Amino acid sequence: MFKVLENEQLAPQVYRMVIEAPRVAKARQAGQFVIVRGETGAERIPLTIADADPKAGTITLIIQAVGAGTQKIVAVGPGGSIRDVAGPLGQATHIQKWGRVACVGGGVGTAVLYPLAKALADAGNEVTTIIGGRSKPFVILHDELAAFCKQVLVTTEDGSMGVKGFVTAELGRLMADEATKPAVIFAVGPVPMMAAIAQQTKPAGIPTIVSLNPIMVDGTGMCGGCRVTVGGKIKFACVDGPEFDGHQVDFKELSTRQNAYKEDFCRLEKQLP
Amino acid sequence: MSNELTAKQRMEIQRVSMPEQHAEARAGNFFEVNQGLPEAIAVEEAKRCLECKNRPCVSGCPVSVRIPEFIAKVAAGDFAGAAGILRVDNALPATTGRVCPQEVQCEEVCVRGKKGKPVAIGWLERFVADWAAKNMAPPAPPAKQSGYKVCVVGSGPGGLTAAGELARMGHDVTIFEALHDTGGVLRYGIPEFRLPKAIVDREVENLKSLGVKIECNVVVGKTLTVGQIMKEFHACFIANGAGLPVFLNVPGENLKGVYSANEYLTRVNLMGAYKADASTPVAKGTTSVIFGGGNVAMDSVRTARRMGSSRAVIAYRRSKAELPARAEEVKHAEEEGIEFMFLVAPLEILGDAKGWVRAVRLQKMELGEPDASGRRRPVPIPGSEFELPAELLIVAIGTSANPLLTNTCPGLKLNKWGNIEIDDNGMTSLPGVFAGGDIVRGGATVILAMGDGKKAAASIDKYLKEKRD
Q: Do B342 and B274 share a structural domain?
């Protein structure tokens, strides 16, 4: 059992939880994830580790509660406990000093982006972050990111915060100006967003790293459920990723595979409160 | 006593049969197929054993169970005595009694098999283990502890066996398991109808009562490295199991409805997708096609049948004679209406507009010259391609070594396939680090992993004692 120490709501359906997991906290590097199972009988859910405190033996998870499994997890308050937390899994983000870096986060992808941006800033990079959300309440971690980024740009679909529109427009603006053009781009968000960014940056030849979150079961390479095609080859996101060269990822296939249980099992989701 | 009977009288007793759930009924449920021998029948079967001097069955057993001795106890009605023998020799008798390929091990070499049918050693082992579970207290830890701490990586058959042996030797054993529950392939792979999970729970509880500690959710290679483990423990046994699933490498393999056997079975078994209230989904199909001919393929196809496929097909590229699966699994599959398509190989998987599988294109094969494995190599017949409509495809053609642990273990010698190399004692290139099971063998059986675990435990005990002297 893993004890929950903190649980606060950041945005509609988005929660930040601090959980006691000393072994994970000690081993964790930026970019890695854990598999969480709220209770006996629940699904195994991959969640990026937003932060870790090896001394306190805690990890921070930022969770978008959209399915039955995540809703049960975020319902556990401080003092309660989570049945299973396994990790840290996946490859750590390759961090180096590139100079100017752009980090682009869409929706809850910003939570995955946050530790990357922090690690990049710690390594001496000049980080500009672009966060996108449906509307103001969905824009998360703005102040946390602003603490170490050179600038944080916000886009919302309804214009209720920052610039009205999508993250791609802001990224395009950065890329167009030699004074702000990034040497490398990290993009984390919904598949269509990452696909659009990869398409946008490819002609400019700017290396673009995306963090994928396909359907996963064990998270240790055993099942192959999270397979993605990268550069024409099958890769397992759990052990080879979750980060890949965005210019090589077959987003169409990924997007189709992501929907597997949504189409078949919308019946289940309808039963949710 | 059993020696009241003469050899001639014993020879006259015919092999009993295992009561089974009716094929038609069981193809629609997940209850165990084999129902177990009743006491009187078990005693009768035990009397068939000639208690011969050569004891070929013991040499035929990867964990060297004293078979004639325990069977003699059964014949005499001393079930507790029989269980006492099994407890010493085999950490998981209720499991091996159910899933071992006895027909190519102990029973293959049984003297009775030369003229008629061998003694039903597996069924008797299962009988005794199940009797003990109902009638005997769990085993107690040894009175004297060695003071040595041993770590076991993985709680599959190899790890559990090693842990049981080491605990009985008085060592302080901790198992680290990557998944959220124990048992490894016994839980995620082998289906409920062949090995009920209550049996796995019971075997694990027996080990715990011997003093074995188990920590789940520890992914060695990620959560902890072998190097870190060796700072806390005096020795370590790596049995982290089967690795990455091998795919067919044909177009269309990433369509929805195509699973590795590992994923399909994990969803159904470990995650309980066969239960009505399960939270983990699994795709279903009116027609399911399973590629492969081993035990995992049989488990997959019989599971798909139970999950609602009216047509469940094994597509195997060689012929029936080459099927690597246990004879009983093939027999049970046939009875359950599984269709066997021999001498076919997949060329391409075809999908519908939404990215779901709709069919597989197969090619017929014929057998050519024997290959490196000694089996005749399948050769494609040009122009024989045909389409088989199916909504669920499961790839059960094996696994390759998972680098998760070995990647973070510098100095650990691997072979060219990435499997861990061991010496005659089961020790790796790192002193005090032993290994066994699929991570060494590259894919084998439960009992071979258990044999490795038993052997490694003996070597670890010797290693620790030599270290002390």
A: yes
Whether B24 is covered by a domain: the verdict is: no
Classify burial at A96, counting beta carbons within 10 Å of its beta carbon; exposed 0-12, middle 13-18, buried 19 or more: exposed
The mean pLDDT value for B349-374 works out to: 93
Residue of A222, A262, A267 to mutate when probing chain B, most B C-beta within 10 A? A222
Instruction: Quote the CA–CA distance of A103 and A97 in Å, as a whole number.
Output: 14
The total number of residues written for chain A in this structure = 273
B350-353 CB contacts, 8 Å cutoff, 24+ apart: B350/B252, B350/B387, B351/B252, B351/B255, B351/B256
Interface contact B271-A43, CB threshold 8 A: yes
Structure tokens at B340: 């066997």
The number of distinct structural domains making up chain B is: 3
> Is residue B211 included in any domain, yes or no?
yes
Output the pLDDT for position B443. 80
Q: Which domain holds residue B64?
A: 2-19+29-135
* CATH of A100-259 among 3.40.50.80, 3.80.10.10, 3.30.565.10, 3.40.50.720: 3.40.50.80
CA distance A24 to chain B (A): 6
Instruction: Give me the residue spans of the domains in chain A.
Output: 2-89, 100-259
What is the per-residue burial (b if ≥16 Cβ within 10 Å, else e) of A122-145? eeebbbbbbbbbeeeebbbbbebb
Report residue A263's pLDDT band, with 50, 70 and 90 as the boundaries. Answer: low
pLDDT tens readout for residues A58-115:
999 999 888 888 999 999 999 999 999 999 999 999 999 999 999 999 988 898 899 9
Token match 């066996």: residue? B161
* DSSP-assigned beta bridge partners for residue B361: B348, B387
Task: Tell me the average pLDDT of chain A.
Answer: 91
Measure B189 CA to nearest chain A CA, in Å: 11
Cα radius of gyration (chain B): 23
Q: Does the distance separating the beta carbons of A253 and B404 come in below 8 Å?
A: no
Which residues fall within 8 angstroms of residue B188, CB to CB, at 6 or more apart? A218, A222, B179, B262, B265, B266, B269, B270
- CATH number at B44 reads 1.10.1060.10
- CATH of region A2-89: 2.40.30.10
pLDDT tens readout for residues B135-187: 999 888 998 999 999 999 999 999 999 999 999 999 999 999 999 999 999 99
Q: Give me B367's structure tokens.
A: 């057998």
Least confident span in A82-91, A95-104, B369-378, B451-460: B369-378
